[in-house]
Amino acid sequence: MNKPDNASDTVRPWKTISSSLALDEKWFRVRKDVVQLPSGKIVDDYFVWESPHIVKVVPVTPDGKFVVVRQYRHAVGKITHQFPAGAVDKGETLEQGARRELEEETGYTAAEIIHLGTGAPYATKITGLMDVYLAPNAALNGHRHYDEQEETEVVTMTADELLNLFNAPDLQQMDFFAATFLALRYLKHGGYSSTRAA
Q: What predicted TM-score, i.e. pTM, was given to this entire model?
């Protein structure tokens, strides 16, 4: 892993002494680790969510509008804006999962889908990664899938309207900000190299 020239080797990984399952629910599997810090101190109750791998898609219509989903999020008690996203199903590639989530949540499909980047949504407590894709020239010709726990409204927004959400008093999800940045960077600079395989 690359590090800045002025970085030292003082940051070291922890040692996992043992792991046990603390909670085993369908959508929430939590493990309890006993770890030893570089200082030698033992922490015997470090909890980690063994979360699924997530794909997020930024759909853009032929006229340059972004397809955005408005959805209630119970943990924060707010209606937020986001791009279509979800867990990759067993046996799916990341790209297949991204295409499925795009159509299921919005009814849009795209002939081309472009990988923008991979990140860790919350590296302190969550194991799963998130891959972000761009779906240019997205068209409303698919079939949405209704889920009563995910009632949504699909809207289209210009880039300026999208960025204005960042200044709004309403709460937004941080991965929405990250996906917006990656998409706008790609669209502004005409593409860049992404090394992660689909």
A: 0.88
